């Protein structure tokens, strides 16, 4: 009887932990539920197509226009632009850390990368606004320093740590046997990196890149403070844009409760959520495939 | 007691200035002031989550209906006037613009300063967030319900607009009277210079009253606060200090 | 000695940080002979082997002292190019470690990194190497499949082919058959006997029978010291040192 | 001398394969040049990161330190926030961060215990992991929307410390789970086996042996979670932060000022943007010191731990 | 057989997922005897040992078939409580693994998890166990220091004391001295000889001299099969099977 008791107790404890472990799923479920609940009513007013592809965002006019295409384009452009900066820098830094840096150097640089990751985004946004923007405006003689380029620069800075540290893990975990095999055949270190290490760690590196971009597309404060906020398609690098998170953050407080504007902002949140959700699923799929086939995949 | 004030970012500086002075006189009052916009304030009044709602526009019919359904009766108090002044870079020689010209510029139809008698320079349009009360007034009184071109630079506050125009010789913007400074140049509208007098006598075409709403007739700290705001020697002095046009 | 020595070490000391792994090793390797290094685990066999192609350079704390020559050139002198050295001294590792590439690309790898572009030459070289490694017939129909699909023994022969493709002079093998089953092991041993006509081969093994079967000369290491080196026949039948005879009769290790 | 050697060898090999003039590869010098160019590029990339961090810190420090004094840290702002300090912001930020940890830490650690100690590989585990990964990827502003719709409106908490802390807790959950799992994984299995071998139940093993051994790592995760929560703004913008509330929060239902929000409103929507610049820099510097300080502490602590274990 | 068998396995098969690690093992262990399990690496010694206290339950893919009894009770029957079983069958591992707690707490651990609260009893039990493990004199002045400060040999004796404190009947030891130096090893061996008056001991060792020194019975495993089990003296001098004699003369492994 006493045995049974202890066994039952263990079962209860296990189930309790299981229950708690579901917290993440539940939270995710609630997020999805409430996002959709508050966002979907806008589609009584505009069709999904008009919402997503509409060119005009005049939520407070009479009659209003709820087209978030410029916002989506703003988000995508800013993300791509920042990726063109952050991917090379992040992956190259990762290569440096994993393959070239002396252990001592690695010990110093890795924490620095982690520190960058922990800088509050509002500080980076603030920096972009008060230091970088006037600088850009002066150097390039443009109407405003708060623009796509500035935002991309700041976003790149924010996503580099993600890209760098995840790729570094992937690169570092390439088995030494492959490194030795290549060097033993008379390859230089660089040739080894390019022909063996990178191909072998490509899935880890791509996961890193996707997660980095996911971070950039969802980042709020930086684009809110730095992107300039014009809800129009940009024609040049230095045009202001209004990415989705910026629009939500700037307008939510002003939108009358459960009004059309409010619902439209939630619907924008849904679109943003779907974007990042796809990024994460892809990253997860790559990471999963990578795990199954072991450390030596092509 | 606790006193929560929410709403219009335009009224926010008034609420804050007056609130600080009010707290000095009534140290036991725990004051919380937030912006959030006129709509947000009125929503909070309807929900009963705030004591006072600031608004830079009058309550809408829809909102009144909603309030009555929930059994609350918002009471408006006019606390100040605001006038919105077009501004340009000090180096710009343009002195006056008609409302039609302003509308043309903001619609994106007038693209060069020389079309309105200025230098041969491209016009860079600076505007406010579409969801600000200030923008709503601009849209209503200048644009006649037509829209500001989406390519306009968007700034989040009056101060930011002033800054943007001060640093850019192509730019035009609009700000509340309280934000005027020497780094920007005010332009008269339809020949009328924006000032306290032209606002009060109604000559300046782009002006509006500012409100505070309460839920039902105010009592306790709330009524004390509103009396303080409306007091010609106390609140209204601070309104003027904040750069707005006092009621009297 | 009058014969030309391909590889020769004189007073070689080796350190991992503060701890010494090799003590004053003097050992010469004849051209076109197979030399086996034997000894208990941790005695420094691998360390010594990896000195010969300077693979130990990769270990930050490693330090080498003394004289190690190939064709009478000190390979630790500053003028020597490590990359070049390693393409002259091929290496095969304990666990087969093919690249996650096709079979063809594995063998072509050494040529490609050298910058060779000539496709016909590469193809012929790949085929020749695979033939030398006694693997060509088994894989000729799937040269462009992933090398990871090969069996362990095939993978190890692929690694040998890969090493041969860059035409090394010396071939180092660190327990090349220890991860393989008996049949695969036999194939590798046969291969070694074939290859010695062309290469100078140095092989580390913990299997004394294997040493006896494949090598001409055997060197016995113990605790970082070279105890004894002699013709394999002699060493196994008439060891001069007590430690050697203890080891080969299985008294310790 | 060595080159001579190589040439003679080439000749020999050619005769071996009966092939004349094997194609010459890229010259050694060129290969080495490429390598040094690329390696310097990689080094430069790493340097750029460090330099960017240094530039940001330098600007904040150079322009912010003057604003910081005892009064700045211990009083409330006044005169339309052009004067005074940021005490309510610091307190609000810490309350939000700690509140989030009070909720997220136990849940996160318990989830990690389930994942690392109890769960067997399979569909359920994969789904939970997918959930965690996706939660980690949800944009912070979406957390804000969720907090607004769920805590503030649906659960009728109003804009309050509580709603903000819960929103932040949801956001930090994946961070804490990740760190805790890492810490649990680093506890050697031999401890578990020894304990079970002595007749301890699984829970006893976890509670008495595994958790104490993993605790430092788990706490490091907690600190990281706290610092992340303290620096975030988007999730609390609609759920907890207000423009001006000079008195310190008195209950979980108080609205609070927070450092990030303070920086944001002063810099973008304030009435006196230029006049309050020094205060903005000062606040930013305080926030940086707060957040980086916590991170640095965690990093150093973890490094020490690693040294001790190895 | 007429004597009572403490532990007995009949037709025991064991699988890790699809691969079988034990084949039809039939082996009995007498009370108060030391039985040594020997055999080359990977032959299944540890696997068999860990079947006896069901430590293999922790491996998700592990599966057991057949009959394993202690005191004639099938320990794999559903009624048996694993936790209780493990406190009756103590285990000592290859590498000393004290908890990062004080010496006292290490030994007291088994009692505490059983729910014993009586402080005096715990203290006396700790002392007794440390004495039985021949460690008490060395540590009596620092019972409340961390166990991690002990030497390897002391740590291993501490682990034995920790196992003894819960008063098990059977003691399983998986290469308990393989991580220790000769002096510490000797101490452990002496300890085993002392302990066998009270416990039934099963020890895995790869050191045949050790098996010869400490055990009464030796069982030889090869590739998952029990080849031969006999009195130690007999097995080492007159093995019945060729494989056994090959192994003990060092012909392979
Ligand atoms: N990277 C390293 N850092 C520090 N010490 C090392 C390193 N590699 C080997 N050693 C030490 O150097 C000594 C010799 O090691 P080595 O690998 O050469 O032995 P071995 O004869 O090849 O043994 P085995 O038969 O087990 O492969 C050992 O004591 C080993 O612990
Ligand atoms: N957790 C596991 N999962 C899968 N296979 C395992 C596992 N543990 C052991 N094996 C396999 O089972 C077989 C027997 O292993 P076991 O550990 O019992 O051998 P052993 O005799 O103790 O060897 P050693 O002397 O090296 O400790 C080996 O082939 C091993 O690879
Ligand atoms: Mg070795
Ligand atoms: Mg074992
Ligand atoms: O905040 P508003 O006054 O612009 O609504």
Automatic annotation (TrEMBL), chain A:
<feature type="transmembrane region" description="Helical">
    <location>
        <begin position="66"/>
        <end position="91"/>
    </location>
</feature>
<keyword id="KW-0813">Transport</keyword>
<keyword id="KW-0472">Membrane</keyword>
<dbReference type="GO" id="GO:0005315">
    <property type="term" value="F:phosphate transmembrane transporter activity"/>
</dbReference>
<dbReference type="GO" id="GO:0006817">
    <property type="term" value="P:phosphate ion transport"/>
</dbReference>
<feature type="transmembrane region" description="Helical">
    <location>
        <begin position="148"/>
        <end position="172"/>
    </location>
</feature>
<comment type="similarity">
    <text>Belongs to the binding-protein-dependent transport system permease family. CysTW subfamily.</text>
</comment>
<feature type="transmembrane region" description="Helical">
    <location>
        <begin position="112"/>
        <end position="136"/>
    </location>
</feature>
<keyword id="KW-0592">Phosphate transport</keyword>
<dbReference type="InterPro" id="IPR011864">
    <property type="entry name" value="Phosphate_PstC"/>
</dbReference>
<protein>
    <recommendedName>
        <fullName>Phosphate transport system permease protein</fullName>
    </recommendedName>
</protein>
<dbReference type="Pfam" id="PF00528">
    <property type="entry name" value="BPD_transp_1"/>
</dbReference>
<feature type="transmembrane region" description="Helical">
    <location>
        <begin position="262"/>
        <end position="283"/>
    </location>
</feature>
<keyword id="KW-1003">Cell membrane</keyword>
<keyword id="KW-0812">Transmembrane</keyword>
UniProtKB/TrEMBL annotation, chains C, E:
<dbReference type="InterPro" id="IPR005670">
    <property type="entry name" value="PstB-like"/>
</dbReference>
<dbReference type="InterPro" id="IPR003439">
    <property type="entry name" value="ABC_transporter-like_ATP-bd"/>
</dbReference>
<keyword id="KW-0067">ATP-binding</keyword>
<dbReference type="InterPro" id="IPR017871">
    <property type="entry name" value="ABC_transporter-like_CS"/>
</dbReference>
<keyword id="KW-0592">Phosphate transport</keyword>
<protein>
    <submittedName>
        <fullName>Phosphate ABC transporter, ATPase subunit</fullName>
    </submittedName>
</protein>
<dbReference type="GO" id="GO:0016020">
    <property type="term" value="C:membrane"/>
</dbReference>
<dbReference type="GO" id="GO:0035435">
    <property type="term" value="P:phosphate ion transmembrane transport"/>
</dbReference>
<dbReference type="InterPro" id="IPR003593">
    <property type="entry name" value="AAA+_ATPase"/>
</dbReference>
<feature type="domain" description="ABC transporter">
    <location>
        <begin position="7"/>
        <end position="248"/>
    </location>
</feature>
<dbReference type="GO" id="GO:0005524">
    <property type="term" value="F:ATP binding"/>
</dbReference>
<dbReference type="GO" id="GO:0016887">
    <property type="term" value="F:ATP hydrolysis activity"/>
</dbReference>
<keyword id="KW-0547">Nucleotide-binding</keyword>
<dbReference type="Pfam" id="PF00005">
    <property type="entry name" value="ABC_tran"/>
</dbReference>
<dbReference type="InterPro" id="IPR027417">
    <property type="entry name" value="P-loop_NTPase"/>
</dbReference>
Automatic annotation (TrEMBL), chain D:
<keyword id="KW-0812">Transmembrane</keyword>
<keyword id="KW-0813">Transport</keyword>
<dbReference type="InterPro" id="IPR035906">
    <property type="entry name" value="MetI-like_sf"/>
</dbReference>
<feature type="transmembrane region" description="Helical">
    <location>
        <begin position="205"/>
        <end position="227"/>
    </location>
</feature>
<feature type="compositionally biased region" description="Polar residues">
    <location>
        <begin position="1"/>
        <end position="12"/>
    </location>
</feature>
<dbReference type="GO" id="GO:0005315">
    <property type="term" value="F:phosphate transmembrane transporter activity"/>
</dbReference>
<protein>
    <recommendedName>
        <fullName>Phosphate transport system permease protein PstA</fullName>
    </recommendedName>
</protein>
<feature type="transmembrane region" description="Helical">
    <location>
        <begin position="37"/>
        <end position="65"/>
    </location>
</feature>
<keyword id="KW-0472">Membrane</keyword>
<keyword id="KW-1133">Transmembrane helix</keyword>
<feature type="domain" description="ABC transmembrane type-1">
    <location>
        <begin position="90"/>
        <end position="298"/>
    </location>
</feature>
<dbReference type="GO" id="GO:0035435">
    <property type="term" value="P:phosphate ion transmembrane transport"/>
</dbReference>
<feature type="transmembrane region" description="Helical">
    <location>
        <begin position="281"/>
        <end position="301"/>
    </location>
</feature>
<feature type="transmembrane region" description="Helical">
    <location>
        <begin position="161"/>
        <end position="184"/>
    </location>
</feature>
<feature type="region of interest" description="Disordered">
    <location>
        <begin position="1"/>
        <end position="28"/>
    </location>
</feature>
């Amino acid at each position: 009887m006493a045995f049974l008791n202890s066994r039952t107790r263990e079962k209860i404890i296990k189930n309790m932990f299981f229950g708690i472990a579901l917290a993440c799923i539940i939270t995710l479920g609630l997020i999805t539920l409430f996002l959709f609940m508050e966002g979907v009513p806008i589609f009584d007013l505009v069709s999904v197509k008009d919402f997503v592809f509409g060119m005009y965002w005049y939520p407070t006019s009479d009659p209003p226009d709820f087209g978030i295409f410029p916002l989506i384009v703003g988000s995508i452009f800013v993300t791509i632009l920042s990726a063109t900066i952050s991917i090379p820098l992040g992956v190259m830094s990762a290569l440096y850390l994993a393959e070239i840096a002396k252990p001592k150097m690695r010990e110093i640089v890795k924490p620095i990368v982690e520190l960058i990751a922990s800088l509050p985004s509002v500080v980076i946004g603030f920096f972009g606004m008060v230091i970088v923007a006037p600088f850009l405006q002066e150097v390039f003689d443009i109407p405003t320093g708060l623009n796509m380029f500035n935002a991309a620069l700041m976003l790149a800075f924010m996503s580099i740590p993600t890209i760098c540290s995840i790729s570094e893990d992937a690169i570092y975990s390439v088995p030494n046997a492959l490194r030795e095999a290549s060097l033993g055949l008379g390859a230089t270190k660089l040739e080894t990196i390019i022909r063996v290490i990178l191909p072998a760690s490509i899935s880890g590196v791509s996961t890193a890149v996707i997660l980095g971009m996911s971070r950039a597309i969802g980042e709020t404060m930086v684009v809110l403070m730095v992107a300039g906020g014009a809800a129009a398609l940009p024609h040049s690098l230095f045009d202001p844009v209004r990415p989705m998170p910026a629009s939500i953050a700037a307008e939510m407080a002003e939108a009358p409760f459960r009004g059309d504007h409010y619902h439209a902002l939630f619907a924008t949140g849904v679109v943003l959520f779907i974007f990042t959700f796809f990024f994460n699923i892809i990253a997860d799929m790559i990471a999963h495939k990578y795990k199954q086939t072991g450390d030596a995949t092509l | 007691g606790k006193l929560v004030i929410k709403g219009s970012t335009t009224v926010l500086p008034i609420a804050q200035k007056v609130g600080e002075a009010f707290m000095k006189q009534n140290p036991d009052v725990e004051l919380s002031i937030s912006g959030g916009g006129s709509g947000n304030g009125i929503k909070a009044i309807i929900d009963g989550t705030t004591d006072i709602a600031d608004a830079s526009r009058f309550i809408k019919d829809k909102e009144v209906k909603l309030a009555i359904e929930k059994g609350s009766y918002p009471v408006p108090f006019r606390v100040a006037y605001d006038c919105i002044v077009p501004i340009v870079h000090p180096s710009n020689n343009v002195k006056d613009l008609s409302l039609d010209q302003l509308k043309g510029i903001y619609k994106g139809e007038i693209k060069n300063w020389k079309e309105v008698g200025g230098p041969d320079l491209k016009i860079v349009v600076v505007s406010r967030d579409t969801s600000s009360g200030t923008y709503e007034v601009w849209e209503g009184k200048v644009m006649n319900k037509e829209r500001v071109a989406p390519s306009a630079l968007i700034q989040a506050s009056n101060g930011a607009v002033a800054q943007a125009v001060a640093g850019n010789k192509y730019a035009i913007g609009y700000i509340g009277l309280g934000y005027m400074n020497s780094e920007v140049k005010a332009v008269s509208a339809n020949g009328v210079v924006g000032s306290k007098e032209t606002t009060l006598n109604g000559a300046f075409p782009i002006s509006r009253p500012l409100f505070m709403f309460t839920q039902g007739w105010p009592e306790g700290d709330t009524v004390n606060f509103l009396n303080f705001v409306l007091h010609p020697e106390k609140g209204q002095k601070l309104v003027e200090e904040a750069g707005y046009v006092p009621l009297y | 000695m009058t014969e030309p020595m391909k590889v020769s070490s004189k007073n070689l000391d080796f350190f991992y940080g503060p701890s010494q792994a090799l003590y004053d090793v003097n050992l010469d390797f004849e051209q076109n002979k197979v030399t086996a290094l034997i000894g208990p685990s941790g005695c420094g066999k691998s360390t010594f082997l990896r000195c010969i192609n300077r693979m130990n350079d990769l270990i930050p704390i490693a330090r080498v002292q003394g004289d190690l020559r190939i064709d009478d050139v000190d390979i630790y002198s500053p003028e020597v190019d490590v990359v070049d050295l390693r393409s002259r001294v091929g290496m095969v590792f304990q666990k087969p470690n093919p690249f996650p590439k096709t079979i063809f690309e594995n063998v072509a790898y050494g040529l490609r990194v050298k910058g060779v572009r000539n496709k016909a030459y590469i193809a012929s070289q790949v085929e020749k190497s695979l033939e030398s490694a006694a693997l060509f017939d088994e894989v000729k129909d799937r040269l462009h499949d992933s090398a990871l699909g090969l069996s362990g023994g095939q993978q190890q022969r692929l690694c040998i082919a890969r090493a041969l493709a860059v035409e090394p002079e010396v071939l180092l093998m660190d327990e090349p058959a220890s991860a393989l089953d008996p049949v695969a092991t036999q194939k590798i041993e046969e291969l070694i006997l074939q290859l010695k006509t062309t290469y100078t081969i140095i092989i580390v093994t913990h299997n004394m029978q294997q040493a006896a079967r494949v090598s001409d000369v055997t060197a016995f290491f113990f605790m970082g010291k070279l105890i004894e080196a002699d013709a394999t026949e002699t060493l196994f039948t008439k060891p001069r040192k007590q430690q050697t005879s203890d080891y080969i009769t299985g008294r310790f290790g | 001398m060595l080159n001579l050697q190589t040439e003679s060898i080439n000749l020999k090999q050619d005769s071996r394969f009966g092939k004349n003039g094997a194609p010459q590869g890229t010259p050694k010098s060129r290969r080495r040049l490429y390598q040094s160019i690329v390696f310097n590029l990689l080094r430069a990339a790493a340097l750029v990161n460090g330099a960017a961090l240094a530039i940001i810190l330098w600007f904040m420090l150079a322009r912010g330190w003057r604003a910081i004094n005892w009064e700045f840290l211990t009083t409330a702002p006044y005169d339309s926030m052009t004067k005074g300090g940021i005490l309510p912001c610091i307190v609000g930020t810490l309350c939000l961060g700690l509140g989030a940890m009070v909720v997220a830490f136990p849940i996160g650690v318990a989830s990690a215990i389930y994942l690392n100690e109890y769960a067997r590989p399979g569909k359920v585990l994969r789904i939970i992991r997918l959930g965690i990964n996706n939660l980690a990827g949800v944009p912070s502003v979406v957390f804000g929307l969720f907090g607004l719709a769920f805590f503030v409106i649906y659960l009728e908490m109003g804009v309050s410390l509580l709603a903000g802390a819960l929103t932040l807790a949801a956001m930090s959950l994946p961070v804490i789970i990740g760190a805790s799992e890492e810490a649990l994984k680093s506890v050697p299995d031999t401890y578990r086996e020894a304990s079970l071998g002595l007749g301890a139940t699984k829970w006893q093993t976890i509670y008495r042996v595994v958790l104490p051994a993993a605790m430092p790592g788990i706490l490091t995760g907690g600190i990281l979670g706290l610092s992340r929560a303290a620096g975030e703004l988007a999730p609390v913008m609609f759920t907890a932060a207000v423009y001006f509330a000079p008195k310190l929060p008195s209950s979980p239902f108080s609205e609070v000022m927070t450092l990030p929000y303070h920086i944001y409103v002063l810099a973008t929507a304030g009435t006196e943007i230029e006049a309050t610049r020094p205060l903005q820099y000062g606040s930013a510097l305080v926030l940086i010191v707060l957040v980086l300080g916590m991170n640095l502490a965690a990093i150093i602590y973890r490094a020490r731990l690693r040294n001790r274990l190895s």
